[in-house]
Amino acid sequence: MNTIINQLFEIEKKALEQNIDGFDRNLKRIYHELEEKGYKIVNPLGTNYDERDSSIDANILNANSKKITKVIRPTIYKTENDTFQLIQKAVVIVE
Amino acid sequence: MKNINIGIDLGTTNSGIAKYENGKISIYKNPVGFKDTIPSVVSFRKGRIQIGEKAREHSATNAENVFSSFKRKMGSDEEYFIKDLDRNCSPIELSSMVLNELINFAQGESLKSAVITIPASFDTIQSNATKKAGYQAGFEEIVLLQEPIAACLAYSNSLQLEVTSEKKWLVYDFGGGTFDIALVNINERDLKVVDHKGNNFLGGVDLDTLFVEKIICPKIEKETQESGLWSKLIAKENTTYNKLFFELLYKAEEAKKELSIKETSNIEIDFDELDISLDIDIRREEFEVIIRSKFEESFHLMEKLIKDNHLRFSDIERIILVGGTTYIPYIRQQLQERTQIQVETSLDPTTAVIIGAAYYAGSKPSELVEEEILNESKIEQSNIQVETIYEPHSKDSEELLVFLLPESFDGYYRITRSDGGFDTGLLKANKKIAEFVPLLEKTTNQFTLFLYDHQQKQVYSNNSIQITNGLYSILGQPIPNDICLELDEESGKSHMEIIFKKNDILPLKRTIYKTCSKNILKNSDQKLIINVVEGNAGSMIGSNLSIGYIEICGSNFEQDLLKGMDIELNFKVSESRDLSIDVYISALDLEINEVFNPHQRKVSIEKLTSEIKNALDAVIEEIRSEESTENYEYLAKLKRSEESLSVLYNEALENKNDALTDKKHQIDELKKIYIQEFDDIIRHKHVLFELDEYNNIKNSLSFYIEKASPRQKEEFEKIIKNEKEVLQSNNKYLIRKKNKELDSLLDNIYHNREESYIDYFYYFRFEDPSVFKDKSKHNKLIQLGEKAIDNSNLIELKSICHQLYDLLIVKPKRKDDFNTFDGNLGIK
User: What is the CATH code of the structural domain delimited by B6-152+352-375?
Assistant: First the structure.
């Protein structure tokens, strides 16, 4: 499932970059279905990088880098026995 | 006497820990994140000590505070200056920190003895240094094991090889950062490293950078204006290119993995800053060309090892693979072709050494005094009094955790979140610890506080810190009743589905997806009705208060709205109780948004009339079915209900065209009261009926469930998982929904059995012959079918039933045809 979610994430990213807003609803719908199935997908883009955040694999550009400026793949959690478990770390660039 | 049982691979680049138990090995997973191993990296930054993945993140930009590959320096007098601690740290100390982090994987288990692996090249001083690291990490007993031996043990035990005569194996260990090759002698389960060679600066990471330099960069240059890209990528202080480098490195690693299983891979690069937007195809051969030289380096060492020992490849029985790089098919294939030796690929090469270490630990008796071992299972929890202060419910994305420690405590603390997404690393503990922790939305976040002494040994843990985000709130106000959406249930009937439950906290927001249950043609006056009511979800719809009502008429459509099309509904209730409904029908690209508030109640006289009519029909039906019971008191109540409803119904009909007076509001009010009264009379009975039904179906299922497929069994478990909640809900709609699910499952299981074809056959057998097309064929099939039953030939009977079905002129309705009814509201 992670691969499918990552592909979906890429599609969303491309749509955003190329200003295609035609399938907002479809993406929202798919994310909704995934949520119903117990997945929580987090896109940390634009947030400040917290070095304590172990749901993220960060590539830190320089010592003063703070902000997450690019997300190559998102964080994925899955509910197991009613609690969330991390199943994929986000890969991000911090600058 | 107990065995050691714990095995640890303390690697140059990665480390891991496993346990031997009842003949099986289980690798402890990293509780933060989910991997089997951690990078052997330690960072010290601003009072925070991080070990593993998080430490490695800073290695490029903050190299002076991040320490890795210290294993290479084990046993030397070299020390690392730690600016943050203002003192030197030996490789032993750093290794013991990695070991301690691995001990944390075992969460709470007290580990006193372990087998730790060392490279075959380690001399006595280096070996003793490793032992010392183990003792510093709190182990009381350390047994060392050479890595190649561990790998051989992993393979021989997993494959259950019986070695009866003397054999020679080669262990080819191509890890993330180092390469080692060892020649091992094996006889009757006794293993010995005869000789070894290695290169401390040859590993998988080198292959990734080569991939970027030799494959990706030239391809980008070819397609864009870029030149000298590689040197730009690795130049210092060139943020844009450094950023691209990281991205390419990540993608190269992914592509490398993909090329291990596929012939081609594809890398997509979208990099706005440099206006690069490319799709690069990479064939496995291209990758093989660039790694050839690295492989040759390793192969050369292997040849030398063989030659130095006056052997030939034919003297070697098998090659054992260790390290992630050996996943590459080219390496496996070259090893096989050029040596003609059997290459073992059955185990995961990245964990082979950990597994081997655990096997060894499982066979090695512990020499610790028995008494101490008896205490082993008890978690050492010293009597530290910690006062914990936090807000258990939160609406924010982070919350403050405060811990007050006794004055005397001197050591470190660490806070982790149980889902694996948060870890503070080790921090010096003061009398008061205050830490803002991030929360996952709309769930209960469980945190654990660990306290460690100076040796990084855990002395305290508390995992009962729970903060719930979004589900409750201290400031918000709860809604007093359920808020429900009316949906078609089957022809002529509707039921309510809860959108927001009683006591949910305002503001509320939810999106649900439904389907259209009737065809609404464009330009027609047919309507799709969205009715949102507030009240008790278990009662009749008419008895509730309609708080949001939208009619969408076919005359607004540019296309026909067909059965089965998706309807997206967004509901929002604000803190001041405004309800906003946003309806979107994607097939028509039609969006309707309305905000309702209690002052603007919309009452549709048409809808009112139909609700009264439905209730009236229900009363009459109930009276008819109860008349024979002679329960006069009950009947009298029903009759009263019937009278008031029929008077109201007539009134509603008379005022159909009244658009001016308040009459319809009065009717609406009375309708609620009357239907509520009727509902009170019959609800209990209906709920009981549905409960009975539930128990009956479940009983039948318990008989058939053993004949169900694994998937059906799984479905069964899923359906009954929340049964307690549903059965106690006092809500007949909810119970009825469960009944339908169970019934349909029962039906599937029943009909999946071959015996069910006997029933089918008799159904056809006693059907009037005129409903079949071909009389003579029908006769023949019936005869054949009877014969098949006599001979218990169910397979033949199955085929006969299918043929009889084909002969039917009018096919019977399918069991699931109830799904295809035409609804009143148009939404289900």
Answer: 3.30.420.40
Distance CA B368, CA B4 (A): 9
Tens of pLDDT, residues B398-416: 899 999 998 888 899 999 9
Instruction: Please tell me the distance from the alpha carbon of residue B626 to that of residue B620, in angstroms, as a whole number.
Output: 10
Q: Note whether B242 contacts A61, CB cutoff 8 Å.
A: yes
**pLDDT tens across B108-126, in order?**
677 889 999 998 888 888 8
Put simply, the answer to whether B246 touches A59 (Cβ < 8 Å) is yes
Best B35, B105, B243, B717 residue to mutate vs chain A (most A CBs within 10 Å): B243
- In this prediction, residue B820 carries a pLDDT of 64
Q: Tokens at residue B579, please?
A: 């309800």
- Distance from C-alpha of B600 to C-alpha of B672, rounded to nearest angstrom: 18
Each residue's pLDDT tens digit, B7-47:
999 998 899 999 998 888 999 988 776 788 999 999 998 88
Express as a percent the part of chain B with pLDDT over 70: 95
Block residue for tokens 């009094």: B385
CATH architecture of B383-469: Sandwich (2.60)
Question: Which of B51, B57, B244, B276 should one mutate to test binding to chain A, selecting the residue with the greatest count of A CBs within 10 A?
Answer: B57
Q: Identify which of B8, B5, B69 has the alpha carbon closest to the alpha carbon of residue B37.
A: B8
Amino acid at B15: S
pLDDT of B657 above 80: no
Tokens of B524: 């027609």
| A1/chain B closest Cα distance in angstroms | 16
Domain ranges of chain B: 6-152+352-375, 383-469, 482-602, 756-820
In the CATH hierarchy, which top-level class contains the domain B482-602?
Answer: mainly beta
CA distance A47 to A67: 6
Rounded CA-CA distance B523/B94 in Å is 77
* DSSP H or E stretch at residue B286: helix B284-308
Task: Report the gap between the CA of B793 and the closest CA in chain A (Å).
Answer: 43
Largest CA distance in chain B: 111
Closest CA to B200 of B122, B115, B102, B114: B122
pLDDT at B128 > cutoff 70:
yes
Test the B interface: residue of A39, A50, A51 with most B CBs within 10 Å: A51
Using the predicted structure, report yes or no on whether residue B179 has a pLDDT greater than 80: yes
pLDDT for residue B133 is more than 90: yes
Confidence category of residue B602, pLDDT binned at 50, 70, 90:
low
Cβ under 8 Å to A: B residues 393-432: 416, 418-425
Residue A73 backbone dihedrals phi, psi, to 5 degrees:
-150, 155
**pTM of the model as a whole:** 0.67
pLDDT of B379: 45
Alpha-helical (H) ranges within B520-559 are: none
In this predicted structure, the answer to whether residue B474 has a pLDDT above a threshold of 70 is no
Residue among B314, B316, B286, B288 nearest B195 (CA)? B316
Bond from prior residue into B507 cis (ω within 30 degrees of 0): yes
